[in-house]
Amino acid sequence: MSFTRRLLMAGSALLLGIAGAAAQGFPNKPITMIVPFAAGGPTDTIARIVGEHMSRTLGQTIVVENVAGAGGTTGITRAAKATPDGYTIAMGHMGTHGAAAGLYPNLAYDPQKDFEPVGLAAGTPIVIVAKKDFPANNLQEFIKHVQANQKTLNAAHAGVGSVSHITSVLLNSMLKVDVNEIPYRGTGPAINDLVAGKVDYVCDQIVSVSEQVKGKTIKAYAIATPARSPSLPDVPTTTEGGLPQFQVSAWNAVFAPKGTSPEALGKLRDALVKAVTDPATKKKLEDLGGVVPDAKGASPEALAELVRSENVRWVSLLKERVKQ
Amino acid sequence: MIAKPPGGNARSIQDILGGAFLVAIAALALFLVNHLPATGRVGFASGTAPRLFAYGLMALGAWILVAGIFKEGPGLGRFNWRGLATILGSVLVFAIGIRVVGLALIGVPMVMLASLADQHFKAEESLYFGIGMTAFCGLLFPTVLGQPIPLWPPFLDMTPGQPTAYIVYAIAAVMVLGMVLYVGRQLMQGRKGN
Amino acid sequence: MELLTNLAHGFAVAVTPTNILLCLIGALVGTLIGVLPGIGPIATIAMLLPITYKLDPTGALIMLAGIYYGAQYGGSTTAILVNLPGESSSVVTAIDGHQMAKKGRAGAALAIAAIGSFIAGTFGTILVAALGRPLTAVAQAFGPADYFSLMVLGLVCAIVLASGSVLKAIAMIFLGLLLSTVGTDLETGEQRMTFGFLPLADGIEFVTLAMGMFGFAEILRNLENTESRDLVQQKVTNLMPTRDDLKEAAPAVARGTVLGSVLGILPGGGAVLAAFGAYTLEKKLSKTPQEFGKGAIRGVAGPESANNAAAQTSFIPLLTLGIPPNAVMAVMVGAMTIHGIVPGPQIMTKQPDLFWGLIASMWIGNLMLVIINLPLVGLWVRLLRVPYRMLFPAILFFCAIGVYSINNQPFDVVLTAFFGLTGYLLIKLGFEPAPMLVAFVLGKIMEEKLRQAMLLSRGDPWTFVDFGRHPISTVLIVISVALLALAVTPALRKKRNEVFVEE
Fold this sequence. Notes:
Number of domains of chain C: 1
Mean pLDDT of chain B: 85
Number of strands of chain C: 2
Mean pLDDT of chain C: 86
Shape of chain C: globular
Radius of gyration of chain C: 22 Å
Strand content of chain B: under 5%
Structural class of chain B: mainly alpha
Oligomer: heterotrimer
Shape of chain B: flat
Structural class of chain C: mainly alpha
Strand order of the largest sheet of chain C: 1-2
Radius of gyration of chain B: 26 Å
Largest sheet of chain C: 2 strands, antiparallel
Helix content of chain C: over 70%
Low-confidence stretches of chain B: 1-8
Order of helices and strands of chain C: HHHHHHHHEEHHHHHHHHHHHHHH
C-alpha cells in the first residue's frame, strides 16, 4: 500500500500547487446559462455567441443548457428556482419575460420580481413576409389586401407562445382583422409551407426569413424597426410603409435569479457589456440581422424598464386576443 | 368474481384484464379532457382528438374484454415482483438523487439496487461493478460528451484547491483502485480456474 | 456532366486530412451516442457546438453531419442487441433484429444492417447530389392534408407490425394515439392530460416511452425467464451473414433503399415512416410472413436500409431551401448561423464548397461507418457474453442517464419507470408495444396536420378526398382504405391467427 499512499500524496501536492495558482472569488467554476429553447434557434445562437465572449472575460466556461418547453417557461421556471449564486443564469426573451404572463395563467414565476436583470444581449427585428405570389407590392397594398380578404387568408405561426405567434397577434390586432391563424411546430415547418404557398403570410424574426427573401422564395413587406436592417437593406421599415405603430423586436436578455450577490451580478454585467460592445461579437450578431445594444442599452436599468413595458404591452393584448 | 360463461369455463384471463385495463385508461383520459371543448370553429378543437382516441380505445378494450369471456386464452403467468420493485426502485433512486447528490454518489446505490433484481445477486461484485460503471459514466457523459449532468454533489465545493475537492477525489480514487484490484483478482482466479 | 464536375469539386473539398479526420470523429462520436441508449444526436451536437467554433464552417458541418448519420447506425446496434430502440426509426429494427440476436444470429443481423445501410447511404447521397432540386419541388407539393393522409396510411401499416391479434394491435394503436395527445394544445395552448404538471406540458418524449415500454419491460421479462436470456449469450454462431443470408436480404435492401429515399425527402415526418413502411412492405411481399417477428433477416435489412436512405435524403430540404426538416437539422442550422452562414435557397450557388463538400463527405462518412462497424460486430456480439446480472444494471444506468439528458429533467426518468411498469403489464396481458410506439410517433404529426388542414379548408372534412385540390391526399386515403379492408378481412384474420403463437 505504500505505493498507493505515495501516489495519493504526490497527487495532493500537485492539486495544492494548482489551487495556489487559481484565483479565488466569483467565478471559480463553470457557469450554466439556461436557454429555454431547443438548440439551433435564434435565442440559442445569440446565447452561444454572447456566452462565448463572456466566458473569455470571466475566465470560466459558460455552459449552455437547453431546457426547452412550454414557450420557454419550463427553462425560465428552473432558472427562477436555481440557487442565486451567479452560477446559474438564463437567456430570457420577449416571450418568457414579456408575453408569458398573458399566455400562461399558471405561470410559476414572476418575470419582474423573481429575477435580477443582467442586461440586454441582442434583439432580432420582426419582418412581415408573404408567399411569393401574394398579390400586393408594398405594405399599404398588403394591409388593404389582408383587410379585404380576411375570410380567406391564412397566417401561419410557429406555435402558441412563439415570437411569430405573438407578433402576428399584434399585427392582426393592429390591422383589425380576424384571419385564420394556422399553428405549426416551430419556424421551419411554417416557413416551409409559406415557401410552398400553402399559407399566405407570417411574421417572424429576420434570421429565420432573410435568406428566403434574398432567394426570392418569399417576399418581405416591412421590417418592424425604426431603421432598415443591413441583412435586408431593400426591405422598408414599417414607418416608411405606413404602419409606424407596428414596432417589435424579439429581444433576448440575460437574467439571474433574485438574490444573486452584487459581486457576481457586477461581474456578469461587465462581461455582458464587454461582449456586446466587442466589435467581433457585435459583427457576428449583426450578420444574423441582430440589433445589438450599446453599453447603456445593455445596462440592467434599461432591461428592467424593458421588461416592465413589455409586460404592459403584451399581457392585456394576449389575454384579449388568445383564447385559453 | 366473474360469472362463468354458459356452456363451459373457457375464458381468457389475459384478455379480460387487458380489456379492462384499456377501458380504465380511456376512462381516465376522458375524465382529464372533460374541461376541453369537444368541437370548435372548424370542427376540431383541443378536446376532439383525445376524445376520439379515448372512445376508440374504450370500445376496443370493451370488445377485447367481452371476447375474452367467451374464448380460451393463456393465463397471466408469474409476476416478477422482486424485479419490478428493485428495477423501478433503482430508477426512481436515480431520478431523485441525480440533482440532489450528483452522478458520483447515486451511481453505486442505483446499480446495486438494480442488481438485486437478479436471483444470483453478489454484493461484492455488484459494489465494484457499480463503482466501475459510475467512474466510466462520470468520465463519459459530463466529461467526454460534455453533457450538463451533475457529477459531484452540488453542496460540496469542488473548486480546485478546496479541501473538500481533494477529499472527494481521494475517496473516488481509492474506490476506483479497489475496483481495479477486485477485477484483477477475479481475472487471476478465472485463469487459475481454467 | 456538370454533376461530375461538382462532385469532383466536393471530393476535393472533403478529402483533406482535416476534413477526413473530422468526418471520422463525427462518425465515431455518432456511433458511440447511437449505441448508448437515450443520448441522442441533438443533445450531443448541441454540446459539441463550442468545439466547432474553432473550425471552418465546412469542417464543422462535416463533423456534425457525421454525428447525425453515425447515430442512425449506432441506434440499430442497441435495438438489435438489447431490444432498446433509441430512435423512432429503430423500433422496427428491434422487432426482428433482437429475435435474430436471441437465436444467436446477432452478428448476421448487425452485419446486414451495416451493409444495407451503406448501400442505402450511397444511393441516397447520389440522389441528393443529382436530383436535389427537382425532389424539393416534389416535397413542396405535400401540404398538411397530404401529410395527414400519409400518416393515416402509416397507421394502417402499423397494424401489420403486430405478429399477434389484429384486434389487440388496433387497441395498441389507439393507446399510442391517445398518449401522443398529452401536452400543450398546438392551436390554443391549453393543457391536455398533464395533471397541471409543467414537465408534461411538451408532451411525452419518445425516448421516455420507448425506453420504458421496450427496454425496462424487456429486462423485467428476461429476469423471470432465465432460459431465453441465456440463449442470447450462449448460442452465438457465425459473425458474418452467410451467402444465403445475403441473397435473401438483397431485394429487401433494394426496396428499402428506394422507399426510404422517397419518404426521406418529405420534411413533415416522412422519415419516420421510412423504416416501418419498409417493414410492412417486406412482410406483405414475403412468401413466409409468419417468419416476421421471429427473426426474419428481411425484417432487418429492409427497414435499416430505408432509415439510412431517409437519413441522407432528409438533407434535401436543408441543402436546397435552407429549411431544417427535423430537430437535428435545426441544430446544424444553428451551427451554420454561428459561423455566419444563414442557410437559404441560394446556398448551392453562394457556398458551393460547403454544399458539395458536405455531399461528398456524406458518402465518405457512410464508407467510414461500414469500415468501423463491420469489425465492431465481433465486439458487440462478445458484449452479449457479459453475464446478464451485470448487463442489465448497466443498461438501466445508461438509460437513466440518457433519459435525464434529453431535457435535464429528473421527471423524465420517473416517467420512464412508470412506462416500464405499464409496458410490463401490457406484455403480461398479451399486448405488443411496437404498434403503440409507431402510433405515438405518427399521432403527433397526424393531429397537427389534421388541425392545419381543417383550418385551411375552414372545417371541411372532405378536403382530404377532394381530388381537385388535394390529389396526393385522395390517392393516399384510397390506398389506406384498401389496405385496411385487406387487413381486417376475415380470411386474412384467420391466416394470422394460425401463425399466432404465444411465447
